[in-house]
Amino acid sequence: MKTRRASRGRLIESLQEGDFIAFFAGFRPTTASYEHTLAYCLFAIFFVQRVQQVRDLTLAQRVACAHGRRKHALDDFVVQADPATSGRFPRAIPIGEFRQNAYRVRRELLQEWGDLTVRDGYIQRSAQPPHFKNPRRFLKWLNARPETTPHLLKTNL
Q1: What sign has the CA pseudo-torsion 142, 147, 151, 152?
Q2: Between the N and C ends of the chain, which has fewer C-beta atoms within 10 Å?
Q3: How far apart are CA 131 and CA 156, in angstroms?
């Protein structure tokens, strides 16, 4: 019997080597002059090296992975990132603004990136993770950012 997966699980399961996951979060601004209550920022990128179910990880891999330490997570999928190309950015990259009663990716970024699969850049607590409609355009934009160079900060990948 095939396990029924939530949308995030299906997304993770479908990733292949070379695909990427860009991580974003809402942070509290560090300066009083920031115009919004939260600063929605990109903070890391992982290029997929391998996708595995928790049940297939060694004990050492489970301990190193938050999903592997959760009870009842044997059917969860985890992504192992390529350590040579993945990591946290030295500085968070602001991408969001508050408009239409929600935090959204700024319109000019949506245009530069080739848009997202979510309505009008909606990123506030999205149950369905947004996808880049044109991943190559996003990566071109990202690689031109001074915040991502010269080096990514390595993390436990």
Answers
A1: negative
A2: N
A3: 24
User: For residue 26, which amino acid is it?
Assistant: G
Q: How far apart are CA 105 and CA 110, in angstroms?
A: 7
In the Cβ-directed half-sphere of 98, how many Cα atoms lie within 13 Å?
8
pLDDT in tens, the chain (157 residues): 455 555 556 788 899 999 999 999 988 877 777 677 888 999 999 999 999 999 999 999 888 888 788 888 888 889 999 998 999 998 889 999 999 999 999 999 999 999 999 999 998 776 678 899 999 999 999 988 877 665 677 655 4
d(Cα 113, Cα 68) in Å, to the nearest integer?
A: 33
Beta-carbon neighbour count of residue 86 at 10 Å? 21
- Taking alpha carbons only, the member of 148, 149, 156, 42 closest to residue 95 is 42
